[in-house]
Write a structure and sequence with these properties.
mainly alpha; two-stranded parallel sheet; 3 helices; 2 strands; globular
Length: about 80
């Protein structure tokens, strides 16, 4: 089994920290689409079966762009929020 960890696409400059309701900026959406295209191209080689994501807005937006392109449904979980 292979596990790929992906950070969400770009969000607002100057804002950092976990649990906000802020989403991706245009560049972040573009980055997420590009990643989706890359993963689609190598989907068979990588054996992608599942997408998992935190339920934070910018992570959800990133996952939705990827799932739309590789045609896999995402499993969202608050357990993946990375709380300290």
């Amino acid at each position: 089994m292979k596990i790929f960890l992906v950070r969400h696409g770009a969000d607002e400059e100057g804002f950092r920290g976990g649990w906000s309701s802020r989403g991706l900026i245009e560049q972040g959406v573009f980055q997420s689409r590009r990643l989706g295209e890359f993963l689609h191209r190598y989907q068979d080689e990588y054996g992608i079966r599942t997408i998992m994501s935190s339920d934070l807005p910018r992570a959800v937006e990133t996952a939705r762009e990827i799932e739309r392109i590789i045609n896999k449904e995402t499993n969202y979980s608050e357990d993946l929020e990375g709380k300290e």
